């Protein structure tokens, strides 16, 4: 019999919320709202549904659905059954879908209405459209599920496979066990201070760990999550206000959109007390606009990777301090800065960021070579360390400063520099709404892309007043439509195609 620590299981976060606050609002979307008791009942009904179809511990359950109330019930229900939840972005193209399904080897697939044929063409697993699934779940919830459908789950068992958006066609899934996910969830809630009266407005899909963990964090904080992945850009601020949101997770593109909309209103959303940023550094002008539009709201900087969820958070009460820092390590974890040989570097010097602690995942699904390079055992105790591939430094007080990924750092004209530094300078130019830099390659020199009404030569002239001559790009392209990944990050692969002319 395996050791069973119920407080380290994903679904026990929901159990604890039900035990203390069954009638509190748990999850809302465009169609309605459930309290914790209702969410719990539907999740247990889905556990029963999985058991009836032979899906059990360790089986992969692939789900490609919109992020709504029902998806959260499926997530918790899979956890109770010991199945591995594999959420896929609804916008994933068939080319990538085929590779992911071959890698995951699902025991069962749940997809949107009309997508069954697409899945059946690329997998031999049973495929169920959501409508039929949910009809059965509702019937089971009404009559009550069988308690024996839930199984003994161990904290080290995988709960989720998160497929990350990488630079190659090969799929790469981070294995996320229950224990690591729960530890990261509780630590983030502790630092950010989620409260029972919080309403978290989340515009990100559960296929991205940023959206997935918001569901868990709200359960741990007894907060309500408003799932708004499909919300229109035009009424975004209205939706934030109508939801009564107090916490708004953002990425730079979403923050810029909110800031633009907020300039047009006198009282955009008075209850918002905190914005939490991830994905990329938030430009200072956007931060200042958010602070002006939402008086008293904290703008919290964070840094992380799916491979450990969160590396550091700037404590909310310190959001105006050390503006270049991305905060301190999560409670109970450590951050190391090492050189190419893995040796620690002195305080203030730049090296690779290495995360150590109970939040570090065990590796990538069926990818031992990349796992061995990224997740390394160290010392006589075999301590597992995540080598992030990101570079930064620590100050004397333990605050982390992010410098960029290995691919972001380069030499030009004898000077070492980072794309992030140049992008930040471009965002400081009045009239520039977005910026992305491509480092020099054998096909092009240092290049800058901006979204702006300014002429390219004007942007470059402004940069020349902010940066050393070697850091001023050779070319600037102004785009009318800004390419973003499914997670709201700059789509640099597409920008490279535009620069090289391969899109013609």
TrEMBL record:
InterPro entries reported for this sequence: AMP-bd_C_sf, AMP-dep_synth/lig_dom, ANL_N_sf, ATP-dep_AMP-bd_enzyme
GO molecular function annotations of the record = acid-thiol ligase activity
Where is the AMP-dependent synthetase/ligase domain positioned along the sequence? 15-365
Task: Identify the domain of life.
Answer: Bacteria
Q: What is this protein called?
A: AMP-binding protein
